[in-house]
Write a structure and sequence with these properties.
Blueprint lengths: L13 E3 L6 E3 L12 H15 L18
Antiparallel strand pairs: 1-2
The chain binds zinc ion.
Zinc ion binds next to loops.
Length: 70
């Protein structure tokens, strides 16, 4: 009678997709877990990659002696 917070009797565990926030089946059957689909997975990886590849601005003329002319 009690409505527990347990997952359904299917044994499937639902999680929130980090990509779209929707429901995603966290099971071996879902190869994109914890994402709900390949698109969300790719989108997240893309965002992560862009963050990883983001490099700080190079120092201008760093190590190069210039402007020595007085
Ligand atoms: Zn998603």
């Amino acid at each position: 009678m009690k409505a527990a917070a347990a997952p359904s009797t299917t044994g499937q565990r639902l999680v929130h997709c980090p990509g779209c926030g929707g429901k995603s089946v966290f099971a071996p059957s879902n190869r994109f877990r914890p994402f709900c689909s390949e698109r969300c997975r790719q989108a997240d990886l893309g965002a992560w990659a862009s963050e990883a590849f983001r490099v700080p601005a190079p120092s201008p003329d760093d190590g190069i002696e210039s402007g020595s002319a007085a």
